[in-house]
Amino acid sequence: MVPSIEDQIHQFHIEREEARCRAIEAEYDERPSTKGQKVTRRKIPKPWKRPGANALCQETDFLVMVDEYDYDFASTDFQEYCLGRGTLSVAGEVGSRRWDYFLDYSITKGDYLEDPLHQYAEEVDRKQHRYTAHEMENGWTIICIGRAKLQDCWELFCKNDPDQRR
Description:
Order of helices and strands: HHHHHH
Helix content: 40-55%
Distance between the termini: 7 Å
Number of helices: 6
């Protein structure tokens, strides 16, 4: 069982604050007058909490911070739940290569970037545009946000039917 998306988002902010403080402390260590000086860490409140018992996170800036998943996308019950919640569409067509990236969330960014299917746009007038590195990064970000949306939906699905949790 992975941490809730609320906790993952919170942890992301805590780690960012820690990195900020360590960078400042590294600068301090370069000067004899401040060597060894510590930076006071800010207390980081949870930046997002579910606003209602069955509310889904709509903030993509927060969803992109979620990187642990345990949803069961092979479950047809879960797929139906996602369809009803308007989340299933993130995965594209059933059986498509895009669908596979949601079915198997162990597929990595490296796998995505090397996949020839995702390197080119659909052919139009016998021409096919090769995606730039920036466009490929954006494509991966969309996959990550989609996975986070499914994880969010999974949490609610399991809350309503606890037997679904692994």
